[in-house]
Amino acid sequence: MASRSISFFVLLVVLLYFKMGSALLSSDYYNSTCPKALSTIRTAVVKAVVKEHRMGASLLRLHFHDCFVNGCDASVLLDDTSSIKGEKTAAPNVDSLRGFDIIDTIKSQLESICPEVVSCADILAVAARDSVVALGGPSWTVELGRRDSTNASFSAANTELPSSILDLSDLITFFSLKGFTEKELVALSGAHTTGQARCVMFRNRIYNETNIDSSFATSLKSNCTSSTADDDNLSSLDTTSKVVFDNAYFKNLLNNKGLLHSDQQLFSGGSTDSLVTNYSKNSEEFYEDFAKAMLKMGSLSPLTGSNGQIRSDCRKVN
């Protein structure tokens, strides 16, 4: 009984943070201080995605990995220094996160037109939205006004990001600790309709798991052998429509063609099966729920007011 009371209290605290964060952000935050901020970010993102479609997924993932570690504060962008152990080399991020150069380009452009106004955390949030739109997915109105952290947490990055080897119950727990429902977990997982994963992240699934389509597994083995030399070889998370943001990811799960263990767990005889089935049939509902979940994620513990700072260089503290 005591553990249930503690869990309920933790959930209330998380929900309070969501409400406080949302209340302090606004969609028109830069209207007067940097009116070209959003168009500048959008132009740079579209250019990057046209050049390399995978970059859309990379920028979306940057925002996710930022927000899940101590809130949406751009801590994920900080390089290591003598006094800061950054998050880039944490296990879920090292040799995996990318797109930092695109954020650098956007920040440089914004600093030239409105110095020390637009935060790196807001750039991440807007770039994630614009990436989804550029890949054919839904749009949403991004709430703005986040400020940037003056520190990072290597340890939190190693413990607060869900792993691809988690079972459904652990995924539900991970997301619930951030205030997300099972429906929001499934909707956010739909981001895997685009992007790629390294062989080392799915090798065990294609060689040892049984709830995988045999022809699908075989098709992946030539590029992902048992040799560690293939660890960094890439395969698409959604082999049906590799670069388009759609609901094919969920259709793949129905056919046991989820690339990652954690993907297929969403359709494995558990409580989220019906959600996956519904999204596989109704792309518009998926788009709507994904947009709502992204808005909620973007409100995770933002720094506002006099907290934090507006970095002039996203890689380092002022």
Automatic annotation (TrEMBL):
Cell location: Secreted
Keyword Heme: yes
Ligand binding (heme b): H192
Organism domain of life: Eukaryota
Disulfide bond entries: C34-C114, C67-C72, C120-C314, C199-C224
Signal peptide positions on this chain: 1-23
Positions with a binding annotation for Ca(2+) 1: D66, V69, G71, D73, S75, E87
Binding site for Ca(2+) 2: T193, D238, D246
Obligatory cofactor(s): Ca(2+); heme b
GO cellular component: extracellular region
Pfam families listed in its UniProt record: peroxidase
Major localisation: secreted
Catalytic activity: 2 a phenolic donor + H2O2 = 2 a phenolic radical donor + 2 H2O
Ranges where the Plant heme peroxidase family profile domain occurs: 24-318
Catalytic site positions: H65
Gene3D superfamilies: 1.10.520.10, Peroxidase, domain 2 (1.10.420.10)
Enzyme category, top tier: oxidoreductase
Residues holding substrate: P162
Enzyme Commission identifier(s): 1.11.1.7
Annotated cofactor note: Binds 2 calcium ions per subunit.
UniProtKB keywords: Calcium, Disulfide bond, Glycoprotein, Heme, Hydrogen peroxide, Iron, Metal-binding, Oxidoreductase, Peroxidase, Secreted, Signal
Keyword presence, Calcium: yes
Family: Belongs to the peroxidase family. Classical plant (class III) peroxidase subfamily.
Function (record text): Removal of H(2)O(2), oxidation of toxic reductants, biosynthesis and degradation of lignin, suberization, auxin catabolism, response to environmental stresses such as wounding, pathogen attack and oxidative stress. These functions might be dependent on each isozyme/isoform in each plant tissue.
Protein known as: Peroxidase
Native species: Trema orientale (Charcoal tree)
